[in-house]
Write a structure and sequence with these properties.
With about 55 residues, the protein is an all-alpha fold. About 30% of the residues lie in helices and about 0% in strands. The chain has one domain.
């Protein structure tokens, strides 16, 4: 099963909103996390942290 690693929501950049679920940052457990995946996840976490989402 999927388990969330980020427990916050990013800032909504536009006024338009249509709730149809959510976004998931996923990877296969059978493969190691790549450098690019790690950098993107780190960037995303930093963006969330800078918006004080908790």
């Amino acid at each position: 099963m999927y388990q969330p690693s980020i427990k916050a929501l990013p800032e909504q950049p536009f006024d338009v909103f249509l709730h149809k679920g959510g976004y998931w940052l996923t990877r296969l457990d059978s493969k190691p996390e790549t450098y690019s995946q790690l950098m993107f996840k780190s960037w995303l976490e930093a963006q969330i942290e800078s918006q004080n989402f908790k």
